[in-house]
Structures are given as C-alpha cells and as structure tokens.
Amino acid sequence: MSTQNRELKMVTSGIPASDGDGVKLTRVIGSPQLNMLDPFLLFDAFESDQAEDYIGGFPSHPHRGFETVTYLLAGQMRHKDNAGHEGVIEPGGVQWMSAAKGIVHSEMPEQKDGLLMGFQLWVNLPAAEKMGEPEYQEFPANKIALEQRENGTEVRVISGTTNYGTTGPVINRHTQPIYMDISLAKGQSFEQRIDLDGNTFIFVIDGELSVGSRKEKLSKRQLGVLHEGNSVYVNADVESRFLLASAKPLNEAVARGGPFVMNTKAEVLQAFEDFQSNRI
Ligand code: FE
Q1: Backbone angles phi, psi at 143, to 5 degrees
Q2: Residue 229 CA to ligand 1 centre (angstroms)
Q3: What is residue 16's DSSP assignment?
Q4: Residue 18: which residues within 8 A CB-CB, separation 6 or more?
C-alpha cells in the first residue's frame, strides 16, 4: 500500500479550565471547539510552578465507563483509590487506569512547590467493557520504552509500536492506541505508520512542527487533529517535543455526565445513583 501522509485537519489550543479543587489546566479535548475525538473523550494539559494553581489537587471522585491516562513530565502526583490501590506517579511515568465499572480515587500533588506538568487523556471503552473490572497499567519512566535514533530523535513509547519496532508497555485491546512522546532536533523529521482510519492527534509540548506533505504549521501547546491516512509525517522547524496519539474509533453513542461516560443517559443516571449509594 502506498504511503498516504496525514494532513492537518483542525487546530485547537483548548480553553483554560479548572477542575478538581481548583487545579488550573488547559482542556484541549472535551472543549467547545473539540468535544471529542472518538475514542478520546478528554485531553487536559497542566503546567504551573505556582502552587496555588495545583495544590488543591483532585480529591476523592468517581469514574465509570472509560480509561484515564496520566502522563507526568514534572512533579509528583499521588493517587489512591477505594480498593486500596495507591502510588506516586513521577516524571516520565504513566498511569493507564481502566475505571470500567467504577473506581473512586484521589489524585493529589505530592509537592508543596515547584513545577507540576503533565497530561491526562481519557480513552473511551466499548459498551461491552464499560462494566468490566477496573484495571491499572502503571509504569515509571524507566519502564517506558525509549527509542534513541542516530539523528538524536527520542521516542518514548507508552503504547503502540514505532516504525523501528519499539513497543510500549501499555496494552489496550479495545482501541489499540498509539501514545508516544517524541523529541526531535531542529530540521529532523519523524514518520509513523498508523491505521488508515484511526483517529489521530498531535499535541506540541515544545517547538514548532510542519505536518504532512502540505507542511502546515503546528505550534507550541497547539493540538492538531489529523486527516485520514496510513502515515504520520512531521518535520521539526526548531527543536521540538510532541505527543502523538491515535486509536480506533468506537463509533458508539456517548452519554457524558461529569466523571461518568456511558452509552445512554439512563446508564449515566444509574452511575450517579450507584455512587451516591456507595456501590462504586
Ligand atoms: Fe480521576
């Protein structure tokens, strides 16, 4: 099959938002501009060295029906759930949590000052899996697959396989996601084979990229949704770092109710009821 580079379809910078107990963040997916990118329901970026922006953290709250993926670049976050699962996510570490039928947890900064920077991505579950058992896939930085290429390119693979065969530790049978953190020196390019119909986005952590054959620009803190194609191709105009995410769409009805994402409104109401009567 010939290579069809994915071109830039739309660009969004998200909206400033506050969640948990006053944590300041940028909501890039799950915003009025980009409500979702099936199966991605939400993408938040947070970055601050001002304690008041994050110190409140995310006290006890439930989730049902999807997966939360926390990837931290700076700082520490402690998570603790109602099943006794507890740990600290450190820089470069990932927590891929499948809330499925339900988890109540807190996510709190494990620091009083300094920089806290990271991302939370929500990945939807298919109807048949929404009431399955919760599950964690947690990896510290040294367990994230690192591919170092001769031209200085570094690819941290959380999930999926690079063109050179490096495979990330996270497994997701439902939407077979690719989630990678890529660093490029100025002038270098990056190519990644991808499912033709997977929904794909790039978020620029730092620098500036030219995307696809048309070389349209994507700047720092912008998220670009890509058109269909079987290859992602970007060039770094300056030294750059970006996240690449892609997954198979579920093409199912989505009913959202805050921390619950189900297929119908009735199922969301049931989730609120279950939470209120301690059944989550
Ligand atoms: Fe949460």
Answers
A1: -105, 0
A2: 33
A3: E
A4: 24, 25
Q: How far is the CA of 225 from the centre of ligand 1 (A)?
A: 25
What pLDDT, in 10s, does the model give residues 227-277? 999 999 999 999 999 999 999 999 999 999 999 999 999 999 999 999 999
Q: Please, is 137 exposed, middle or buried when counting C-beta atoms within 10 Å of its C-beta (0-12, 13-18, 19+)?
A: middle
- Cα 176 to averaged position of ligand 1 atoms, centre (Å): 22
Instruction: Describe the strand order of the beta sheet including 77-81 as a list of residue ranges.
Output: 58-63, 103-109, 77-81, 86-89
pTM of the complete model: 0.97
Structural domains for the chain: 8-276 (2.60.120.10)
Distance 106 CA to ligand 1 centre (A): 6
- Cα 280 to ligand 1 centre (Å): 14
Q: How far is the CA of 214 from the centre of ligand 1 (A)?
A: 38
Using CA atoms, how far apart are residues 217 and 264, in angstroms rounded to an integer? 38
Q: Is 61 exposed, middle or buried (0-12, 13-18, 19+ CB in 10 A)?
A: middle
For the stretch 85-95, pLDDT in tens is 999 999 999 99
226 alpha carbon – ligand 1 mean position (Å)? 27
